[in-house]
Amino acid sequence: MPPLLEMRGITKTFPGVTALAGVTIRIDPGEIHAVVGENGAGKSTLMKILSGVYPHGSYEGTIVFDGAERTIRSIRDSERLGIIIIHQELALIPLLSIAENIFLGNERATAGVIDWRETHARTRDLLARVGLAESPRTLCGRLGMGKQQLVEIAKALAKEVRLLILDEPTSSLNETDSEALLELLLQLKARGIASILISHKLNEVARVADRITVLRDGACVRTLDCRDRTIAEDEIVRDMVGRPLTDRFPPRSATVGEPVLEVRGWTVRHPTQPDRSVVDGVDLTVRRGEVVGIAGLMGAGRTELAMSLFGRSYGRWTAGTMRIGGRPVDAATPRAAIDAGLCYVTEDRKHCGLLPDESIRRNIPLSNLEGIARFLVVDDHRELAVADGFRRRMAIKSPSVEQKTGTLSGGNQQKVVLSRALFADPRVLVLDEPTRGIDVGAKYEIYRIINDLAAAGTGILMISSEMPELLGMCDRIYVMNEGRFVGALPAAEATQEKIMHMIIARNG
Ligand SMILES: Nc1ncnc2c1ncn2[C@@H]1O[C@H](COP(=O)(O)OP(=O)(O)OP(=O)(O)O)[C@@H](O)[C@H]1O
Ligand SMILES: [Mg+2]
After folding, report:
1. CA of 38 to the centre of ligand 2 (A)
2. What is the number of the ligand 1 atom nearest to the C-alpha of 397?
3. 20 to 30 Å CA-CA from 416: which of 79, 92, 122, 273?
């Protein structure tokens, strides 16, 4: 069977970085082909070349699609061939309806007038194909991430897709939504639509992929075939990292001290619907040297809780007290929270994390400008030393700290965000999905840093949707549902089943 796509000898350089060095990859018709690799391995870059984001001429190598060599100069060119990419960061416009988003730039019109009947009818059709029961009129901003992802796929189907590219589609989805998405990929496959799936969730990859290509440092290490044998996750990890990774969680011995964070009766209302409590009477304690987790489903109010504690940066705080190190704290701004010793690392680095046009060096010290200042002036040498120290310690993949953070790979951006919080040297560090989009090797490094911080006496509060991560890292786990804490478990007693049971008991 002739391949659907062949990318041959693809080499792409950025100033100071070789992102891809002679990558060759072949995609068969109707297969699900996974591309995996560490943060910065070159996965997104390869897909941007294929989809015309980086046009023909800006890289070396050739692309053969459907039996002919192609020059792809723009996204339009790739879409004309039926190659459709859904990027790591979704691109739907929140204030437009589903139908408007799907047919944006591709309107159903007669004599220049948009035919809404036809548009809505076709949208309904497409939504049915991706298993969504929403009205075509629903605004995209109202949909959760999982549903937005499905709308993106519906949009791809509206364009006669032959090869669908998904760059970490499930990284911000819960388990149910991820399942639905992968199921849809399998259905598309049954109808002959090939897909390329980029993901750090190796269990998903091993389950749905026909073949897996592993990239390391911009080169293709190996392509594993899952059609004739089951591929173990460990085998993929070994190829990705270049060595076997025996443990997923570093060992730690916790010495837990007195409470550093005590929150009582914390209640927060929705910012625009004041009759809704998003956080309702939460009591919470984190001790010195303790790693405390918050488990819960998407929408349980965990991020809202964390953000409201962080200088009331979410919602309308109505009641509750907070003590840090035994002292009452009334932090009405993030700055005041940082000064009081509480730092928050957001799950959403695009909107409230990094300054993408600034260098790594400028981004890291932002949490603690005094730490790099002398006589109230930023000391360039100190700034450089601090940033470079973090670059090494966190293994941020970049030739120098002068690189703009916006051009770092997703996982490396996360390391910069984390470095910044560490530099403030907080007494309490709140981490919201700290390893989202992070490769397995780097996850281990981040866990090690969390353990070191705890050992040095920092109290850690960690929100995560990855249950194994909570179970592997925490001393104690709170379970949150619909704005309330519905249970707490010491690590020794916690299991995935018990946590799910607490959540479901509440809903049932
Ligand atoms: N516009 C750019 N300018 C400079 N360097 C870049 C640019 N885009 C990517 N790079 C570099 O190219 C390399 C590959 O990045 P890429 O985004 O493809 O990695 P990735 O495999 O998708 O990683 P992740 O899993 O973190 O998303 C990285 O070292 C990155 O810093
Ligand atoms: Mg990427």
Report:
1. 9
2. 29
3. 92
Same domain (yes/no): 234, 289: no
Is residue 249 assigned to a domain? no
In 3D, which of 455, 479, 454, 475 has the Cα closest to residue 465? 479
Residue 328 in any domain: the answer is yes
Going residue by residue through the chain (508 aa), what tens digit of pLDDT does each one get?
Answer: 899 999 999 999 998 889 999 999 999 999 999 999 998 999 999 999 999 999 999 999 999 999 999 999 999 999 999 999 988 677 788 889 999 999 887 776 666 777 888 889 999 999 998 888 899 999 988 888 778 888 988 998 888 899 999 998 887 777 788 888 899 999 999 999 999 999 999 989 989 999 999 999 999 999 999 988 888 888 898 999 887 777 889 988 878 999 999 999 999 999 888 888 999 999 999 999 999 999 988 778 999 999 999 999 888 889 999 999 999 999 999 889 999 999 998 876 665 578 888 999 988 887 776 666 666 666 788 888 889 999 998 888 888 899 999 888 877 888 898 898 888 889 999 999 988 888 888 888 889 889 999 999 999 999 998 888 999 999 999 999 999 999 999 988 999 999 988 887 755 4
Report pTM: 0.82
- Domain hosting residue 427, numbered range: 276-507
Ligand whose nearest atom lies closest to the CA of 409: 1
Residues 51 and 194 in one domain: yes
| Angstrom distance (rounded) from CA 434 to CA 281 | 25
Whether residues 464 and 319 fall in one domain: yes
Tell whether 255 is covered by a domain: no
Residues within 6 Å of ligand 1 by CB: 14, 17, 19, 37, 39-45, 397-398, 407-412
Could you identify the atom of ligand 1 that is nearest to the CA of residue 218? Answer: 14
What is the count of structural domains for the chain?
2
Helix (H) or strand (E) holding 152: helix 145-158
- CA–centroid distance, residue 46 to ligand 2 (Å): 9
Q: 356 C-alpha to center of ligand 1: Å?
A: 14
CA of 308 to the centre of ligand 2 (A): 30
Residues 307 and 407 reside in one and the same domain? yes
Q: Residue 43 region, left (φ>0) first, then alpha (ψ -120 to 50), else beta?
A: alpha
Residues 213 and 290 in one domain: no
Pocket test for ligand 1, best of 409, 440, 445 (most atoms within 8 A of CB): 409
191 & 297 share domain: no
Q: State the closest ligand 1 atom to the C-alpha of 168, by its place in the atom list counted from 1.
A: 27
Q: Which atom, in ligand 1's list, is nearest to the CA of 437?
A: 25
**Cα–Cα distance between 240 and 38 in angstroms, integer?**
6
Domain with residue 187: its CATH number is 3.40.50.300
Question: Which of 241, 268, 290 is at the close of a domain?
Answer: 241
The encoded tokens of residue 192 equal 């002959």
Q: Give first-to-last CA distance, the chain, whole Å.
A: 51
Among the candidates 241, 260, 291, a domain finishes at 241
- Within a domain: residue 250? no
Closest C-alpha to 306, from 142, 109, 172, 461: 461
- CA-nearest residue for atom 6, ligand 1, is 407
Q: Does residue 465 share a domain with residue 359?
A: yes
Nearest bound ligand to the CA of residue 396: 1
469, 475, 476, 481: CA torsion to nearest 10 = -20
Identify the residue whose C-alpha is closest to ligand 1 atom 29.
40
Residue of 7, 14, 59, 398 best suited for mutating to test ligand 1, as the one with most atoms within 8 Å of CB: 14
Contacts of 70 (CB under 8 A, 6+ apart): 63, 64, 77, 81
